[in-house]
Structures are given as structure tokens and as C-alpha cells.
Amino acid sequence: MNRTLKAALMSVAIFSASASYSMAKMPASADTAAPAMSVDKASFVKVVTSSNEFEIESSKLAAQKAKDADVKDFAKKMISDHTAAAEGLKKAARLGDGAPVLSPKHAAMLELLKGATDQEFEPLYIDMQTSAHMEAVTLFATYAKGGDDAAVKAFAKKTLPKLEMHKMHVLGLVAAH
Hints:
Residues 41-170 form the DUF4142 domain. The protein is 79% helix and 0% strand. It is an all-alpha fold. It is globular and about 45 Å long.
């Protein structure tokens, strides 16, 4: 399977997962509204740890491989902000100093980026960042509203506005490309 087709399939998979995740928390109608989706601390920490590591590692690649100055600037901001977020999560969740682990999904996405040609790289990176930030905003908003750990919930509330800014920034890159 060629790289472009792989990239397209990965994009569809990422978008589908993101859409499914977002749809899962929406009630069917006002009359039959189910309780809002909730996320426990362990699940939140596991997903956020992997997401932060993906953001950092994929953005390190973008800082090296991207040709567009705006994409390079965005990547540098992601490295800085997500490194700080990873440290904030470690403190809030009282995590040790172990190395972060990428989920299979994030590992596959990172491998796809590593294998992308120069021509494929920027659109793929921007697409992955868009999906990642859509998911992150949904996850952080959910935990900030109903999280089961006060310190981690405070971290989610504090971090959410920055993630929303990242989402707007990457959507600007989408519009520009």
C-alpha cells in the first residue's frame, strides 16, 4: 500500500474515532438525555500522557521536516506547551518519573509521520494535529466538568484554554494550506 493511501486511511480512522468519541457524549434528544460521559482519573492520565508524548515527538519531527515557517512555529509551540503540560500532569496526578508510553494508536500515527515523504509530511502533520486537538479539547472539557480527582480536575481546567488556543491555531493552518 503506498504512503499516500496509508495516510488517507489513517486520517479517516483518526477522524472517525474522534467523531465517534464526540458523538458518544451527545444525548439522543432532550427528552431522552443520558448523563454526560465521564472519564476516570486513570483513563484520563493514560490518554493524556500518550497524547502529550505524541504531540511532542510529532512536533519534533515537524520542526525538522516542515518547510512552511508557520508549521515550524506551531511545532515549536507544541513542543514547549505539551512538555509543560506533561510536567503539570505529573505533578497533579502524582506520577513518578517513568518514561511516557505511546498508545498503539499514537505509535502508529508517529510511524506514519516518520515514513511520510517531504510532500506528504506537512498535510499529514496538520491533519493529525487537528484531530489530536479536537480530541484533547473534548477530553479535557469532560474531565474538567466531572473528573474524580480534584488536583487532576484543576489541571484539566487550567490546561483547557491553552488547548482551545492550539485548536484554533491548527485550524488556521488548515485554512492556510
